[in-house]
Amino acid sequence: MDFSLTDHQKLIRDTVRQFMETEVRPLVKELEREQKFPLDLLQKLGEIGCCGMLTPEEWGGAGMDTVSYVLMLEEVSRVYTAMSTALGVTNSAVQAPLNQFGNPAQKEKYLKRLATGEILGSFCLTEASAGSDAAGIQTAAKLTGETYRLNGAKTWVTNGAHAGVYIIFAKTDPSAGGKGMTAFLVEPTCKGFKIGRHEDKMGQRSSPSVEIVLNDCEVPAANRLGDEGQGLKIALSALDGGRIGIAAQAVGLAQGALDESIKYAKQRRAFGKSISEFQAIQWMIADMQTELEAARNLTYYAAWLKDSGKPMGSAASKAKLYASEMANRVAYKAVQIHGSVGYSRETDVERMYRDARVIPIYEGTSEVQRMIIARDLLK
């Protein structure tokens, strides 16, 4: 097996790394302290192709492979995880289903603007009483003439306060369960659309999660994505690909935590020598690196399967499961290596520790990933 990156993939990695180190790292503490959404920085990343990496060139995207996309998210997350969350949603959860299921008019209207970073996208599936059980959503859509009226509320919407288009899932036939779900492309200017409460989160505080309230929200029938009843299929296809991105995010965060730990261990002295000379610290760093490499290989393999057109659902779940839980273990050890300093808001590892906790939850909890993996083995 060839694990080497192409020259083009290395160029993408190095370009994004340089941008994150020079343009973003100096601002991270300020963004975190003020909970400021880095829209201007995301748009600059859009100028170098990061907002539409998987979207074909004919629709304004970079038309790159999934491994390149993974490398981009890794480098962004290594410096500031909140930005990778925003990029992952607009790239994968929104543009991928729009490219797969949208008609030419929808792609012309939305996909080109999303791919260049002119606007961001949001994916609206989760509700207060429907998370892992996607088919259990209660938001309803009723067609009247040439307009659908949507009623309900969505929660934990990433990019929700800043998006230019939202993919919203609603029941057009409540009696049909999951088969009655339909997807819609909704603009924030639609009558009856409202941004509700902002979640006060533990981590990723510069990536706001908001509630979207739909009160007889009027959506043109032309904005239905796919056919009626196709919503669950669209949602699950978006989540399958999105899990590779979440795994990449976890790998990037863990790499950042390891980098900080190695640097600190070499600088910090105790009992007359660098703490990097103590076996306890060496073993923690060795375990961090070993787990990180295992997660990275799982993630790259899932990305390679996707690029090869091979079934990758189970592989994506394995990558997401292992990488997300690995990131939490690595972040924990990073704080431990830093000691009391690691508990301070002045350190990057404190933020990484908080940011990592949500990764085993969103885009399918660890428990859901285990269900998918087991189902594939036992079918």
3D architecture notes:
With 379 residues, the chain is α+β, with helices and mostly antiparallel strands. The protein has three domains: 7-120, Acyl-CoA dehydrogenase/oxidase, N-terminal domain (Butyryl-Coa Dehydrogenase, subunit A, domain 1), CATH 1.10.540.10; 122-230, Butyryl-CoA Dehydrogenase, subunit A, domain 2; 233-378, Butyryl-CoA Dehydrogenase, subunit A, domain 3 (Up-down Bundle), CATH 1.20.140.10. Helices cover 52% and strands 15% of the residues. It has eleven helices and ten strands. The protein has helices at 7-24, 28-34, 39-47, 66-79, 81-101, 104-116, 231-267, 279-307, 313-338, 348-356, 366-378; strands spanning 121-124, 140-144, 147-158, 165-171, 181-186, 193-198, 209-220, 224-225, 269-270, 273-274. Strands 1-4-5-8 form a four-stranded mixed sheet. Helix 5 packs antiparallel against helix 6 (104-116), helix 7 runs antiparallel to helix 8 (279-307) and helix 9 (313-338) runs antiparallel to helix 10. It is globular and about 80 Å long. The two termini are 28 Å apart.
Describe the biggest sheet?
4 strands, mixed
The CATH homologous superfamily of the largest domain is named Butyryl-CoA Dehydrogenase, subunit A, domain 3
Straight-line N-to-C gap: 28 Å
Overall morphology: globular
Strand % is 15-25%
Strand order of the largest sheet: 1-4-5-8
Order of helices and strands: HHHHHHEEEEEEEEHEEHHHH
> How much helicity do the residues have?
40-55%
Instruction: Let me know the average pLDDT.
Output: 96
**Which residues form runs of ≥5 with pLDDT under 50?**
none
Under the CATH scheme, the architecture of the largest domain is Up-down Bundle
